[in-house]
Design goal:
With 449 residues, this protein is mostly beta strands. It has three domains: 189 residues, no CATH class; 103 residues, Immunoglobulins (Immunoglobulin-like, Sandwich), CATH 2.60.40; 107 residues, Immunoglobulins (Immunoglobulin-like, Sandwich). 13% of the residues lie in helices and 41% in strands. The protein has five helices and 29 strands. A seven-stranded mixed β-barrel has the order 1-2-3-9-6-5-4. Strands 10-19-18-13-14-15 form a six-stranded mixed sheet, with no helix packed on it. The longest helix has 32 residues. 26% of the residues are buried.
Length: 449
């Protein structure tokens, strides 16, 4: 992308010294994007999906920019000699406003990548003099913003001048302007502001899609879901009437008429709702489509057992980590041990095993992991850790259990001590009683003898 990030002082210097092509624009800007021209390779490779691509340039002239205070630094773009090494597509006529154009204008300054592709669509039959009109498809995506635009362009006849050499691009079958560009008009566009969305099970989502360049009353719309080679229609709009093929799907028909908004709302999402949604819009003279990727995300629930771990001499203990109700499938499970009183990082444990993945009725997954340890007396106080990583987690989830002194040793000492004391007291009482019995004086005689 050609940057609009020149410092304002530098822009003013260029303007003051009359550098060609740098006249300031107050309410519109030229957006210049590095693109790829995509073309089918033909023959057998075309049947198998073979394509070639060539560097290209897309110039969007005088794009209205909303809500910006930097218009004094915007400049027109002059085609350079090095630009002419590849096709230059110059959109110079359009009554259609490009949505969120300020995102395209400032993407380079903000470090956002813009992907741009252009391909030939069809050639209209020639009418009278001049070359036939050629139609091109353009696709833009701004990574990190959600903005995606599919555009339909048509070539504009070039005014013939007697003193100018007529230029023609044989490969693309188009006439070139005096500056070597392919002059185009923007006929129609379909856009989305949410190219990729993540949602949890049971939630709702709005899949954004809109159009510009045709009357709303003449529009028909089809929303399709494509996933793992299978496709199905979820909603259609025709002649002002909408029909939901998926239960819990709706479109605001008033927004279609007033704003060209054909977004749909999906309620009570399930795993089966995941995939690529295609918004196909057919106007009276043009059609286009855009895609929205919906990913279902459920973070795992993690538990460790046993919840209490006591040391027992010569006994091997088995620890289990239960990871449940997560989606998508892949998780990473690691075991560590952290010795008490040591500042070093937790050490990985060996001998880890896993169960097979188990699928729940709602499409989420469960798995368990086991590790066997035989601690020594010196390991008392150590912490055993199960760490789980999943795409839904910004940081891995950790659950742990600490090796403790056996309950029998802790409780047995005071119990034994109290038993000795009680036994001693009973012995002393018995001894006193015995001595008292033996010290009694003899009883009186009966006076005989």
């Amino acid at each position: 992308m050609k940057s609009h990030c020149l410092d304002l002082p530098l822009q003013l210097v260029l303007l003051l010294f009359g550098v060609p092509g740098l006249a300031a624009v107050n309410d519109a800007a030229d957006v210049v994007l590095d693109c790829w021209y995509i073309e089918s390779t033909g023959g057998f490779q075309a049947i198998s999906g073979g394509f070639s691509r060539e560097k290209a340039l897309l110039i969007l002239r005088k794009v209205p920019i909303q809500g910006s205070e930097e218009s004094e630094s915007w400049t027109d773009y002059d085609v350079r000699e090095e630009d002419r090494e590849h096709p230059i597509f110059e959109v110079i006529a359009s009554e259609i406003a490009i949505p969120d154009a300020e995102i395209l204008l400032h993407a380079d300054c903000e470090g956002r990548e813009v992907t741009c592709e252009i391909s030939s669509f069809e050639t209209a039959p020639a009418t009278g003099e001049g070359s036939p009109s050629v139609t091109f498809l353009g696709g833009l995506r701004v990574v990190g913003s959600g903005l995606g635009i599919a555009m339909l362009f048509s070539t504009i006849p070039v005014d013939q001048e007697e003193d100018r050499v007529w230029n023609f691009n044989e490969k693309l079958h188009v006439e070139l302007s005096p500056t070597g560009t392919i002059p185009l008009s923007l006929q129609f566009l379909v856009y989305t502001r949410t190219a990729a969305i993540q949602r949890s099970l049971g939630s709702s989502v709005s899949l954004d899609c809109g159009f510009r360049g045709t009357e709303a009353s003449k529009v028909s719309v089809e929303w399709r879901l494509q996933h793992k080679g299978a496709g199905r229609t979820i909603y259609t709009l025709s002649e002002g009437r909408g029909e939901a093929e998926r239960e819990g799907t709706a479109m605001d028909l008033d927004m279609v008429t007033t704003h060209g908004n054909v977004s749909v709302i999906l309620q009570q999402l399930t795993v089966q709702d995941e995939g690529t949604y295609i918004c196909m819009v057919q106007g009276d003279t043009a059609h286009g489509q855009h895609t929205v990727q919906l990913d279902i995300m459920e973070p795992p629930l993690v538990f460790i057992s046993p919840s209490v771990l006591y040391f027992r001499e010569g006994t091997r203990e088995s620890l289990t980590c239960e990871i449940s109700r997560y989606y998508p499938l892949d998780v990473t499970v690691k075991w560590f041990v952290q010795s008490e009183g040591e500042d070093q990082d937790p050490q990985p444990l060996a001998g880890v095993s896993f169960s097979s993945h188990r699928r729940n009725k709602d499409g989420t997954y469960n798995i368990s992991s086991q590790v066997s340890v035989e601690p020594s007396p010196q390991d008392v106080g150590a912490v055993y850790i199960c760490e789980v990583s999943h795409v839904t987690l910004e940081e891995p989830t950790r659950v742990s259990v600490q090796l403790q002194t056996p309950a029998g040793l802790e409780e047995g000492v005071p119990f034994a001590t109290s038993g000795v004391v009680i036994s001693s007291i009973l012995f002393v009482l018995a001894l006193v009683h015995f001595c008292w019995r033996n010290s009694e004086p003899p009883g009186p005689t009966d006076g005989t003898g």
